[in-house]
């Protein structure tokens, strides 16, 4: 579903706050999150619902694994942005999925790649505010495909056609100016899929090697 632009009341964005404040709120969020898991675990034990313990532990294990993968991306401000986004942005539910460790430092331009990931997040966060009555979801997948790293962003929710097209054009202009490739986009009814590729630095170096020059 696409909507027409409407005026909205200005809302303070917690992602723009002082980094120290963001870290404190993030710590409080995870402390609260872990307390909830512990209380559920203790409740199952007290009620002798032992059959529910294994699924709960697997869920906790998977959550910890994803957080571990995120923490090893290698770009501190991006890691903080991703974790804070999950903890504090209420209008857009973010699900980050990594099947293995990804080290952005191995890319040709790590900082530019990190900024583009943040730009994707911010673009869809703005679209999610179009209709606060509807739930909006964003799934981010990072995976290696041969000699490139692929980011797949799948957004489900309301959006404004003209605005998302402008953001896509801005991101493409930046990528092309820096020697990258255009993002692949598929826009549908209440669903957008963006794919961005980055090349690993070792590929660039190998292509530039010459033993007989």
UniProtKB/TrEMBL annotation:
GO terms for molecular function: phosphorelay sensor kinase activity. InterPro entries: Sig_transdc_His_kin_SpoOB, SPOB_a. Residues 22-73 form the SpoOB alpha-helical domain. Coiled coil: none annotated. It comes from the Bacteria. Keywords: Kinase, Phosphoprotein, Transferase. Gene3D superfamilies: 1.10.287.130. This is SpoOB-type signal transduction histidine kinase.
């Amino acid at each position: 579903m696409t909507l027409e632009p409407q005026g909205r009341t200005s809302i303070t964005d917690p992602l723009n706050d002082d980094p120290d404040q963001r870290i404190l709120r993030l710590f409080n969020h995870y402390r609260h999150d872990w307390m909830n898991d512990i209380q559920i675990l203790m409740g199952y034990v007290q009620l002798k619902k032992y059959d529910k313990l294994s699924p709960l532990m697997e869920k906790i294990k998977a959550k910890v694994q994803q957080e571990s993968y995120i923490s090893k991306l290698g770009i501190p401000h991006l890691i903080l942005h991703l974790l804070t986004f999950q903890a504090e942005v209420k209008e857009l539910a973010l699900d980050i999925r990594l099947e293995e460790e990804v080290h952005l430092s191995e890319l040709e331009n790590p900082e530019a790649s990190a900024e583009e990931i943040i730009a994707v997040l911010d673009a869809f966060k703005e679209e999610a505010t179009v209709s606060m009555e509807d739930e909006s979801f964003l799934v981010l997948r990072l995976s290696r495909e041969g000699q490139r790293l692929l980011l797949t962003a799948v957004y489900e929710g309301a959006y404004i056609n003209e605005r998302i097209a402008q953001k896509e054009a801005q991101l493409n202009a930046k990528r092309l100016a820096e020697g990258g490739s255009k993002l692949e986009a598929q826009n549908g009814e209440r669903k957008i899929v963006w794919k961005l590729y980055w090349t690993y630095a070792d590929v660039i170096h190998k292509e530039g090697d010459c033993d007989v020059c």
